[in-house]
Amino acid sequence: MGTTDVIDPATGAVFTTVPSLGSEETDAAIDRAAKAFGQWRRVAPGDRARLLRRFATVVEEHLEELALLEVRNAGHTIGNARWEAGNVRDVLNYYAGAPERLSGRQIPVAGGVDVTFHEPLGVVGIIVPWNFPMPIAGWGFAPALAAGNTVVLKPAELTPLTAIRLGELALEAGLPENVFQVLPGKGSVVGQRFVTHPAVRKVCFTGSTEVGKSIMAGCADQVKRVTLELGGKSANIVFADADLDAAAAAAPGAVFDNAGQDCCARSRLLVQASVYDEFLARLEPAVRAFRVLDPSDDSSEMGPLISAGQRASVSSYLDGADLAFQGTAPDGGGWWFPPTVLLARSAADRHWREEIFGPVASVLPFRDEDEAIRLANDTEYGLSGSIWTRDVGRALRVSRAVETGALSVNSNSSVRYWTPFGGMKQSGLGRELGPDALSSFTDVKNVFLATGE
Ligand code: NAP
Ligand code: MG
């Protein structure tokens, strides 16, 4: 077994090391998970529910510890990190309601009785990226466990600490051994075994579209179930009739939150031409005032990028681009980058088209509703987006026309654990969260009982 150094992105310094599993250790863990499945699926629904609620309570008891780990390991602001740990607790509580409600149907047929069951799949492999280590882990393991599956989870190499801690807290809460195992290691080793090992019956992957496609192709070999949450290049569409003050005040947070390392980032700002200058005049002070500070500072709105490589990649988008204005960032160690607004010359600009995954917004004017919809949809992605208007009819028309999975009107928030989340087009496949997520962690079994009539 090797090890991986864990770096504080606010300083660039190594502060701990964690194990990095090889393929034999991964196989052994998957075998243990497959064995544990036999027992876990037979735990009575009410007992499984109680264990998940207990897990949520233990997460709550360790909320500050988990949040501080994420500040250190991922550079998340303390405010965000507390929300993220709280989200794990909430998602566990939400899906704790599921084991006792996972009912099938009784369907009228001739000659007997027909019933359906939602059977768990077996071992579920969850592959987590570095941008939201806690929530993305929880969106996978909470419904997977609730439905009666056992889980092996691979955190990103850059951000393994909160996942490892959640694995320990699950045991502390009383989940049986090997029901939920966290396996730190490389994507090409641990993650790949989830794809190729026949005992893993489903892979939930969040990360880049490129790796997501290779995982989907690999899963085809065993017709393995797959959920994909991939990249985005979402549009924030501001119509002339919108509350421009509110839209401009909210726009920085919609793209700079988590230093723009958010698949839902509204990184394409489409502004109706008749209010373009007026809107930019309101946006500039909001961008300059965005507080990029030490992420452990309670008033910090944005921390550093995750790595030196990510900073180099983000910087490359400024080459030859028209810079509108920038905010500020601390200098010194760590992977800091200031909030940046670029003016797109056309929809062909590289910074307009590619997912930057950093604190960079691109702005482009549009003439009318039709052009706004055409520009918003001119991308291979389709994850989130926002529409700012006071016209209810337009809000609904444009919501139906924009091809993305999670839209908001007069708001930039797309994640609520009660509601489905996921992408259209190349942003993903399947939906997480909400009332329907259970169905992607179960298979329907139909049973006909002849009654001799
Ligand atoms: P990535 O390579 O897609 O990594 C995501 C996860 O997949 C990590 O746990 C990674 O492990 C694992 N992985 C990598 N290659 C794998 C393979 N062949 N088989 C199985 N698992 C594998 O993403 P990244 O390199 O960290 O980031 C690159 C870009 O992807 C970002 O700049 C951003 O544009 C996009 N991204 C999007 C999201 C999102 O939420 N949609 C999240 C993260 C990144 P390792 O950590 O060991 O590599
Ligand atoms: Mg990668």
Automatic annotation (TrEMBL):
Organism this protein belongs to: Actinoplanes utahensis
Residue stretches spanning the membrane: none
Assigned keywords, A-Z: Oxidoreductase
Oxidoreductase as UniProt keyword: yes
PROSITE patterns reported for this sequence: ALDEHYDE_DEHYDR_CYS (PS00070), ALDEHYDE_DEHYDR_GLU (PS00687)
Pfam families: Aldedh (PF00171)
Highest taxon listed in the record's lineage: Bacteria
Keyword Transcription: no
PANTHER family in the record: ALDEHYDE DEHYDROGENASE-RELATED
Coiled-coil ranges from the UniProt annotation: none
Ranges where the Aldehyde dehydrogenase domain occurs: 3-447
Family: Belongs to the aldehyde dehydrogenase family.
Active site residues per record: 229
Name of the molecule in the record: Aldehyde dehydrogenase
A single MF term (Gene Ontology): oxidoreductase activity, acting on the aldehyde or oxo group of donors, NAD or NADP as acceptor
SUPFAM superfamilies per UniProt: ALDH-like (SSF53720)
